[in-house]
TrEMBL record:
A Pfam short name: N_methyl
Gene3D superfamilies the UniProt entry points to: Glycoprotein, Type 4 Pilin
Membrane-crossing residue ranges in chain numbering: 12-32
Keyword rRNA-binding in record: no
Xref: InterPro entries: N_methyl_site (IPR012902), Pilin-like (IPR045584)
Record keywords, A-Z: Membrane, Transmembrane, Transmembrane helix
Lineage, top ranks: Bacteria, Pseudomonadati, Thermodesulfobacteriota, Desulfuromonadia, Desulfuromonadales
Cell membrane recorded as keyword: no
Name assigned to this protein: Prepilin-type N-terminal cleavage/methylation domain-containing protein
Length: 219
């Protein structure tokens, strides 16, 4: 039999090398894919956080009242910024509310502190979560960031701010910013990919922070 050249490889050896390379590339690809998903989820959560702060700044710039000409010389009309969430559609929008329908006549519901359907609403921003992510508490087992209470059942929370029946909220989770940038109540906005969950948490009225859980402690 002719001996094998020291510089050559048998077919079996080549197949073994190719197989090992395929395994290594598969492992590396899986790691890169998971890292990219982690980055994408954090980026989506950061976008929500940035939009909440942007809406907050719009409320501060607008103030609680705007001055308009009136027969008596000047009239102050109440206004605020609302962020309305649609968890089923994984979307949200910010609306500037002005407590007047613009017809020049005072209404019974003007200056009562609550919007009505005849009032003026201007969309300031609209956004949606990327595909594969949703407003849901996912694998998190305790409330966002502090973990002060259990989520039961797991995956049952999405956006925990109040759901007023008046416009523009209309029964959906809603954040109301006043002219100082404060919110009327605290709550959590959960964003998940099913494996881990980020939360935009309003620990104090007007203060937002970001935290993450993969089912264990928040960090």
């Amino acid at each position: 039999m002719r001996g094998r050249s020291e510089a050559g490889f048998t077919l079996i050896e080549l197949l073994v090398v190719i197989g090992l390379m395929a395994i290594l590339f598969g492992i590396a690809g899986g790691v890169m894919s998971d890292q990219f998903r982690r980055w994408s989820l954090r980026n989506a959560a950061n976008r929500v956080l940035e939009d909440m702060r942007a809406a907050q700044m719009e409320a501060i710039k607008a103030g609680d009242y705007q001055s308009v000409p009136a027969a008596t010389g000047e009239q102050f009309i109440q206004q605020n910024v609302f962020v309305v969430f649609d968890p089923a559609a994984n979307s949200y929008r910010a609306e500037l509310w002005v407590d007047d329908d613009g017809d020049g006549n005072p209404e019974a519901t003007d200056n009562n502190g609550y919007p009505d359907a005849a009032d003026s609403f201007t969309t300031l921003l609209e956004n949606s979560l990327p595909n594969g992510f949703s407003f849901n508490s996912g694998p998190a087992t305790t409330s966002a960031c502090s973990g002060s209470s259990a989520i039961n059942p797991v995956g049952s929370d999405d956006v925990t701010f109040s759901r007023p029946n008046y416009p523009p909220c209309n029964g959906k989770p809603c954040i109301r910013f006043d002219g100082r940038g404060k919110v009327s109540s605290v709550g959590n906005i959960y964003i998940t990919d099913g494996r881990r969950t980020y939360a935009v948490n309003s620990l104090r009225p007007g203060f937002f922070r970001l935290c993450m859980s993969d089912g264990g402690n928040w960090r």
